Amino acid sequence: MKTNDVYSYIVRQTQDITTMGVANAKQNLSIDLKYQMIDEDDSSKKLKVTFEHISLKSTSLAGEMDYDSDQPSNNSLLKSLGEIINKEYFVYFNNNGLLTQVIGPERTKKNNISPNDIARLFNDSTFATMLENTFDIYPGKPIRVNEKWNTKSSATVSNFEIQKDNTYILKSVELGVATISASSLLNMPSSTIYQGKYKLQIEMKGTQVGIIKMDIESGVIISVNSTQKIDGKINSMGQDLPMTISSEFNSSSKKIQ
Description:
Blueprint: E1 6-19, E2 22-40, E3 44-60, E4 63-68, E5 88-94, E6 99-103, H1 118-121, H2 124-135, E7 148-157, E8 160-174, E9 177-195, E10 198-215, E11 221-236, E12 239-255
Antiparallel strand pairs: 1-2, 1-12, 2-3, 3-4, 3-5, 5-6, 7-8, 8-9, 9-10, 10-11, 11-12
């Protein structure tokens, strides 16, 4: 990427949650953003990222939620989602292309959270974490076909501490486009949330696999397609309830300026 280059980036995610073998929740999330290289020298690079549109549809036993940032919402649980629109985040890389820092308008502290409080699940820290996971894939050195590299990440989203052990393999390079396989081991140590006066203990583990397409010359991620499966349990009043979360993630980018 060159200074002042601007790219659009589109994210689409679907998620199905099954508890005790019964499907009881489904979520569709769409995010449109743009990013621009605003500063570049021999030692670092800086991207400015702006969120332009967010939509969220959620169906569960508790009911349905539907939010679109292009349309005003009177739902107090969803209204604050619109506050992320046009906010600016800054992503920093060193001269080897390794991500060093993400700075947002606010890094929200961890709080006790109700599972039904959708708006607080999508705060500034959540989106900063999303950017970290999006851009923190570069090896920081030249890579040959069939060579692999690893990254580790840990992020707090509300009360959930998620640890990721990521492995990438350069599968091929054709016509200036690199194809990279990505696989991750996911681990969420035992965490506590509160639903009203009830205390819930949650523990989960899972895997994520996918394919990344990257433009060699610019380093821009062209597309990401991945699937994720997490198995876990919720302990409520001494009873363990098995849970499975299945997700699909698709993203794409293109140069707009």
